[in-house]
Amino acid sequence: MASFVFRRLIAAVIVLLAATFLMYMLVALSGDPLKELRESSAPNKIELMASLSQRLDLDVPPFFRYFLWLGGVGQCFVGACDFGVNVQGLPVVILLQQAMGSTLQLVTGAQIIAIIVGLIVGITTALRQYSGYDYTITFASFLFFSLPIFWVAVLLKQYIAIGFNNWLSDPVIGVPIMIGISIVSGLLWMSLLGGASRRRWITLGVATASTLALLAYFELTDWFTTPSVGIVGVVITALAAALGVTAVSVGLKDKNAVRGALVTAAVGIALYYPMTYFVFRSMSLPLFFALSLGAVVVGGAIGYFLGGRDRWQSARTSAIVAVIIGVVVVIDGHLLYWNDYVNSSRVNGRPVATIGSTTPNLGGNFWIQGIDTFTHLLLPTIAIILISFASLTRYTRASMLEVMNQDFIRTARSKGLTQRTVVVRHALRNALIPIATVIALEIGALIGGAVITESVFGWSGMGRLFQNGIDHVDPNPVMAFFVVTGLLAVIFNLLADLLYASLDPRIRVS
């Protein structure tokens, strides 16, 4: 394996060298960076042109200028990266660091959510092949896959941002809309769970009634004005997570895993009030990460000590339950400060932002800043999720259908294994092999596609850095963008190759 990794790294270096050379030449020969100064009427334009030529080494032919740039990049191996300067004379390394943080903040959460949702929906559509649910998801996937992201972004601005902000001034749902949403929810759950005719009708009735009751509760309590999860919501979520995650992970017949998950849920419920009224008041980013790590460790430890013979499976299950409970409690912590954020002078009752990454001069504590980050990330994240989700869902569905028709799946069923075991332990593991390649390519494409997303939403990240470099015929910012994107593509493709061997023991590397 070490030899394989070494060979792949050598090949990646050669590919990156060829690609960066081609990109540098294309940018350098695409125009004249001195054009604006030549057409300027400034009295000192000769001095300005000479200064810019010196900064960008314009007196050196592009072929040799590339190797000057490459020499600066090569200093990264000794911890002194030098990507040159842009047309304004600012170091590109500093600009890249700022842009990378902004772009990674934008795409990381969106990609994680898209992968999780895409895999889940793709698996369920494969298991419910040719059902109404399958046809609906297939139609939606092809629709979102064919839509350009800039048009999706405009629709989100109009109906999610402007429309929702207007609705918040008088948040009334209305009986017809409540009934319509409840029926759609019931049909979705009926199609998703499937089963015999009697079971489908029961699912439809229960899901419709539950959704209608929840919406009525929101309406009667004016929930959208003063939102909160509360202890009741935490209890329901904790118990549902304990039973649901255990059912999917190891099955409810494993009493030790069920016990560990329920104990984890009980611990999370018991810590709700102490965390809300004591710890959350002095919350900071380091403390938040420490508590997050602590939740995973405590949940895993509970599952491990109560897991019996399958300790590690129980530990994994309890850790996931702890993460879900922690997410719900953190959401409730943010909702406690929702009114303070919405009614602040900088937000002025319109919380969903349409442009930028932060509200200027907002101030506030950890929770206020968290809400502000969320409201600015909401629209671009949804846009990225919709586009990525469409392709991941289709690939996952196709891969699962192919695996489910294999002989080893029929053998597993003939041995009397449960549907959960067949799907989770046998089919899914093999279906993930081609999906790993798709995800690796998606990540590289996502960073590259950030140019359009950031332009629409006014996000100052790597896309803006790339666009400015193209506009000013400045190769240095463009190359910084290209190097980061290329490295991510190479690294994630290498990780995908290594993941193959982990998912399929038959794969061996000579």
From TrEMBL:
<keyword id="KW-1133">Transmembrane helix</keyword>
<protein>
    <submittedName>
        <fullName>ABC transporter permease</fullName>
    </submittedName>
</protein>
<feature type="transmembrane region" description="Helical">
    <location>
        <begin position="319"/>
        <end position="338"/>
    </location>
</feature>
<dbReference type="Pfam" id="PF00528">
    <property type="entry name" value="BPD_transp_1"/>
</dbReference>
<dbReference type="GO" id="GO:0055085">
    <property type="term" value="P:transmembrane transport"/>
</dbReference>
<feature type="transmembrane region" description="Helical">
    <location>
        <begin position="479"/>
        <end position="500"/>
    </location>
</feature>
<dbReference type="GO" id="GO:0005886">
    <property type="term" value="C:plasma membrane"/>
</dbReference>
<keyword id="KW-1003">Cell membrane</keyword>
<dbReference type="InterPro" id="IPR035906">
    <property type="entry name" value="MetI-like_sf"/>
</dbReference>
<feature type="transmembrane region" description="Helical">
    <location>
        <begin position="6"/>
        <end position="29"/>
    </location>
</feature>
<feature type="transmembrane region" description="Helical">
    <location>
        <begin position="105"/>
        <end position="127"/>
    </location>
</feature>
<feature type="transmembrane region" description="Helical">
    <location>
        <begin position="374"/>
        <end position="392"/>
    </location>
</feature>
<feature type="transmembrane region" description="Helical">
    <location>
        <begin position="435"/>
        <end position="459"/>
    </location>
</feature>
<feature type="transmembrane region" description="Helical">
    <location>
        <begin position="172"/>
        <end position="194"/>
    </location>
</feature>
<feature type="transmembrane region" description="Helical">
    <location>
        <begin position="230"/>
        <end position="250"/>
    </location>
</feature>
<feature type="transmembrane region" description="Helical">
    <location>
        <begin position="139"/>
        <end position="160"/>
    </location>
</feature>
<comment type="similarity">
    <text>Belongs to the binding-protein-dependent transport system permease family.</text>
</comment>
<feature type="transmembrane region" description="Helical">
    <location>
        <begin position="287"/>
        <end position="307"/>
    </location>
</feature>
<keyword id="KW-0472">Membrane</keyword>
<dbReference type="InterPro" id="IPR000515">
    <property type="entry name" value="MetI-like"/>
</dbReference>
<keyword id="KW-0813">Transport</keyword>
<feature type="transmembrane region" description="Helical">
    <location>
        <begin position="257"/>
        <end position="275"/>
    </location>
</feature>
<feature type="transmembrane region" description="Helical">
    <location>
        <begin position="201"/>
        <end position="218"/>
    </location>
</feature>
<feature type="domain" description="ABC transmembrane type-1">
    <location>
        <begin position="100"/>
        <end position="500"/>
    </location>
</feature>
<keyword id="KW-0812">Transmembrane</keyword>
